[in-house]
Amino acid sequence: MNILQAEKISFKYSSGREILSNIDFSMNNEEIVGLYGDSGSGKSTFCKILTGFIKNYDGRVLMNNKQHEKGYNPIQLIYQHPEKVMNPRWNMERILKESWMPSNEILDQFGIKKEWYKRYPSELSGGELQRFSILRSLNPNTRFIIADEITTMLDAVTQVQIWDSLLTIARQNKIGVLVVSHDHKLLERITDRTVFLGDLNK
Ligand SMILES: Nc1ncnc2c1ncn2[C@@H]1O[C@H](COP(=O)(O)OP(=O)(O)O)[C@@H](O)[C@H]1O
Ligand SMILES: [Mg+2]
């Protein structure tokens, strides 16, 4: 069992008030956990702390009682806007394979067509791009996925398909998923338990 743990996390951006205050949180890799909160309450900030994109916070983020140091990060962040974190001059094959080489079976499971490989990010729809970014984060060394509003911009049908594919693989491979959303109904439907960010602040 792998445990992701945040201990006494506090943080403020240089300009402003404290956004996260003494937060304790933990989950294991066999759970799908929801993180719910009002807009602007610090959900994305917390995601960046969990995945090491923000470093100047107080407290500790641990996986199996250790802080991440070098090499592949087993705690992967997926964003709401995948196009913002993809190199627009790389084709999809290069973008995907920079992380790993999924089998044809997994490509099928995600509804990814090989003919899309030669396209650039600007030549795919939002849903298609998000499938690539999820797949990229499913590198075999990944233990936790932090999914920050990843289907908020997509239509209802695409939303269902994407969660179905992602959660099936996560359960099979025992990858813990933190599903961050302001959509309470979505969280009720797909997670094992949900925490409210406001309740974690002390
Ligand atoms: N880079 C930044 N610099 C300063 N303030 C920021 C930055 N990013 C976000 N904030 C502020 O921090 C607060 C929390 O933002 P965020 O974590 O994005 O909330 P959420 O994801 O819950 O909507 C907001 O008030 C936002 O304006
Ligand atoms: Mg956010």
Overall description:
The longest helix is centred in the C-terminal third of the chain and has 18 residues, at 156-173. This protein has 202 residues and is of the alpha/beta class. Strand 6 (144-148), helix 5 (156-173) and strand 7 (176-181) form a beta-alpha-beta unit. The protein is built from 7 helices and 8 strands; from the N terminus they run βββαββαααβαβαβα. The protein is 30% helix and 24% strand. It has helices at residues 43-50, 92-97, 104-109, 126-137, 156-173, 184-190, 197-200, and strands at residues 3-11, 20-28, 32-36, 58-63, 75-78, 144-148, 176-181, 193-196. Helix 4 packs parallel to helix 5 (156-173). Bound molecules: adenosine-5'-diphosphate and magnesium ion. Adenosine-5'-diphosphate binds next to helix 1. Residues 13, 15-16, 19, 37, 39-45 line the site of adenosine-5'-diphosphate.
